[in-house]
Amino acid sequence: MMRALLIPALMLALYGCGEKSQSQADARDSGDQQAYQGAHDPFVTKGWTAGNKAEWERHMRARTQAQNEYVHINGS
């Protein structure tokens, strides 16, 4: 009886010791690209091409202004 409880308890303890780290440092990819390099897929914004930094900045500025509450309230 004791052996039947001891083996699963040891297996559970060993499973807990083998958990992967979930820290922020481990989640980051050191080979990351610049944001304006972007994705090369059909889900990107219309009119934006990956790798064009000036165009990316213009789109980000327009997107930020669309979310700016002062612009919505003041009607500017």
What does this structure look like?
With 76 residues, the chain is mainly alpha-helical. The protein has helices at residues 2-17, 24-27, 53-66, 69-74. The chain has a domain at 35-76. The longest helix has 16 residues, at 2-17. It is elongated and about 75 Å long. It starts with a helix and ends with a helix. 0% of the residues are buried. The mean pLDDT is 78.
Write the layout of secondary structure elements.
Blueprint: H1 2-17, H2 24-27, H3 53-66, H4 69-74
Descriptive keywords:
single chain; 4 helices
Summary, kept brief:
This protein has helices spanning about 1-15, 25, 55-65, 70-75. It is mainly alpha-helical and about 80 residues long.
